[in-house]
Design brief:
The structure is a single chain. The protein is mainly alpha-helical. It has 19 helices and 2 strands. The chain is globular and about 70 Å long.
């Protein structure tokens, strides 16, 4: 790194970890950890004394106001992030290597892809790959672009809209955060933290309260997003267990699932990335591939028909779905697309931070192709196989899903499996996959929160990583215990609301990243 590099660590007096406090076996950033922990305690206290229905109504009103008023901003920001990332892939900046010219990758390409995919979206594909295409096709919750339900055009638009929500846009959002953090950490020697991205704009003020606030928001969005997902995942896993084994487990089963997931996540996070997260992510991808291949083979003709339909639906409707103006499907737009965009943005500090942590040694071009293009291709196949099978069951009135449509979202995948050979075995595999996806989300999230609250340090005491894994589980259990689904949905609404400030933060990240690139030798 050149001594004349404007944004290198040599030109700031800040030392990684200088504001940290070492006490009780912890090594934490004084302000970020203290304020974050205090706000989390207040939140837990509020959960225990409040009425979940009232809290949900209040937070829903905030979320709905943001979604309705800032819908255009969310859509245009998402479009910009896609263009920005694709532009970097073909630009000369794509030759820059994260960590410098001599940096080497720390993980094999397959393990790297498995980890970023498991953290970024794996569990969502389990939850929505059947329910979402079927919902759009039947008009459950409205139809995209006001297409007539249960028509050939509805089939194409349903698959295209599903891919629109799970394709380039969300991964571009993650890519902006991940690339920004990785570049300033590995090429400029700054802490692996959200605040470091803004050093070209803020200078040494980055290490003051402006940076503290950014990191605290990132911690809260990550923690509450993970707790929400743990709660929703426990409900899906419990629904699957009840469906497969004919049990009647309710709240107790859901809490038991969270306890088991949290205990395994604690063990995994204590082992670190190589022996914990990477191992589980590789297992996840193998099991997911087996499930995908079996379902695809059973419905081979359906899958072969649906894959090109999905691609064409995605390509043909990409621009109409990206345009917020003159839409006649406002209810669908606000209820699905804008909420999705807000959710991806609110999750970007978590997923982006984790991807950044595991991506040293990759060129920017390689990084963005892996983060944008590869997951989009994999998701196209996954959604086509599972969503196509679901829609064809609806078309032919096969099984519970085909005859009754979407009744409960957590049950949709298991109902689809019922109509396939070896449906019970598939459901058991799916329950296990859901659980392992949640474990990888929990332990990777714990690593991210630990790093942010430790001032960007990544080699911290095991007790800290365990602490955050426990906190995630406790929040999810408290939500279910006090208010069940209403409390979980209330927290989800609150998490989505954080997307508004984070949209501005991400746009500024793009500017800051370009300023940083200008100081880097890449020719």
């Amino acid at each position: 790194m050149s001594k004349h590099d404007k944004y290198s660590i040599e030109n700031t007096d800040y030392t990684i970890g200088q504001d940290n406090v070492q006490k009780w076996g912890f090594d934490v950033h004084n302000a970020v950890f203290g304020v974050s922990a205090g706000l989390i305690v207040l939140f837990l206290a509020a959960i225990l004394i409040s009425d979940p229905a009232t809290a949900k109504a209040a937070l829903d009103s905030v979320k709905n106001a943001i979604v309705n008023k800032f819908d255009s901003m969310f859509l245009w920001a998402g479009n910009f992030f896609v263009i920005f990332c694709l532009g970097l892939i073909i630009s000369p900046y794509g030759r820059i290597r994260l960590g410098g010219k001599e940096a080497e990758s720390e993980h094999s390409t397959l393990s790297w892809l498995a980890m970023l995919f498991a953290a970024g979206m794996g569990i969502g594909l389990m939850f929505w790959s059947v329910a979402e295409p079927a919902a759009y096709y039947t008009g459950w919750g409205g139809t995209p672009l006001d297409v007539t339900p249960e028509t050939p055009e509805a089939f194409k638009v349903a698959m295209g809209a599903t891919m629109y929500h799970w394709g380039l846009h969300p991964w571009a959002i993650y890519g902006v955060v991940a690339l920004s953090m990785a570049f300033f950490a590995y090429n400029k020697g700054l802490p692996l933290s959200i605040r470091s991205v803004f050093y070209p704009i803020l200078g040494d003020r980055t290490w003051g309260w402006a940076g503290h606030i950014v990191d605290i928001l990132a911690v809260l969005a990550t923690l509450f997003g993970l707790a929400t997902s743990l709660g929703l995942g426990a409900q899906q896993a419990a629904s699957g267990i009840n469906h497969v084994f004919g049990t009647q487990g309710g709240l107790g089963l859901q809490i038991g699932i969270i306890v088991v997931v949290t205990l395994i996540a604690i063990y995994s996070v204590a082992q670190g990335i190589d022996s914990g997260v990477k191992l589980l992510s590789n297992i996840n991808m193998i099991v997911a591939l087996i499930l995908l291949v079996f379902v695809g083979a059973v419905g081979f003709s359906v899958s072969m028909h649906t894959i090109p339909t999905t691609i064409m639906g995605y390509v043909e409707n990409f621009i109409p779905l990206s345009n917020p103006y003159g839409r006649t499907d406002q209810a669908w737009l606000h209820g699905w697309t804008v909420v999705y965009w807000a959710w991806w943005i609110s999750w970007s500090p978590f997923v982006g931070s984790f991807i950044a942590r595991i991506s040293k040694g990759r060129t920017i071009r390689e990084f963005l192709i892996a983060v944008l293009i590869v997951p989009t291709l994999v998701t196209t196949i996954w959604m086509s196989v599972f969503g196509g099978q679901a829609i064809h069951q609806v078309m032919d009135k096969i099984g519970s899903l085909g005859q009754n449509g979407i009744t409960e979202v957590p049950l949709a995948m298991f109902q689809m499996f019922d109509a396939l050979p070896m449906g019970t075995v598939l459901s058991v595999i799916a329950v296990g996959l859901v659980l392992v996806f949640f474990i990888t989300s929990s332990d990777s999230g714990s690593l991210v929160i630990d790093s942010i609250t430790a001032g960007g340090k990544v080699d911290n005491p095991v007790a800290q990583r365990v602490f955050w894994a426990v906190i995630e589980g406790l929040i999810a259990i408290a939500l279910l215990w006090v208010g069940g689904t209403q409390a979980i949905e209330a927290l989800q609404a609150g998490t989505i609301s954080t997307a508004l400030p984070f949209t501005i933060i991400l746009l500024l990240m793009c500017l800051s990243l370009l300023l940083g690139f200008r100081t880097e030798k890449y020719k």
